Prior knowledge:
Elements lengths: L2 H12 L4 E6 L5 E5 L6 H13 L3 E5 L2 E8 L4 E5 L3 H12 L3 E5 L15 E3 L3 H7 L6 E5 L4 H14 L3 E4 L3 H13 L4 H4 L2 E2 L11 H17 L16
Amino acid sequence: MDPLSLKKLNALRRERRAAILLTELAGGRDRVIREGDTVAGALGEAVDRAFRSGRSGAVEIDGGNFFLNVHLPPPRLVVIGAVHISQALAPMARLAGFDLTIIDPRTAFASPERFPGVALHAEWPDAVLQRTPLDAYTALAALTHDPKIDDPAILAGLDAECFYIGALGSRKTHAKRVERLMAAGASPEALARIEAPIGLNIGASTPAEIAVAVLGSVIAALRSRGLAVRTGAGKEQAA
């Protein structure tokens, strides 16, 4: 590997940014492609697929052979609200390979007894997210129903361009949420990224079922980055 390529890769890892080390197998030349860089033609399509899947591998394009070594930051899931849905979501998220953090200032909810082995913060989201900022490889799920807790975290998620932002509540609840967030400075385009009601439209009703729906939406968003795809919850949740 070219030492300059290694230096670039290490810098991108520290910044939690995705990159591919593209190596021309015939000559051994390599270069680093950051997610979002423009790569034309069939090679660009292969690069986009590799970023979405996270899988490294060899490709043959226009008579040339290349190896795409994919380096993705570990995906994070930040959950606002130590609620029943979060209790069901925590083990599922771990199994799916997400680094999970739960934030809730309400100490009666955010207790180690209810969330054993989970990175749990019984603090206001503002304080936690200042220490550990959100980024493009983080999903945010706001589950408290309390605007004082959820809204600042959602605004932080929009600013950080999290790959997924979802919020619990009915369409009526979300309409009021949108009004508040617009008053706080969020643009209509940014607000359109919020999935509310949260989760895939599978008719979920119990906390465990809603957790499955939420995780499904998060995975779909992770694997469709850069594509104009929205999961659309299409269901009502309690106001």
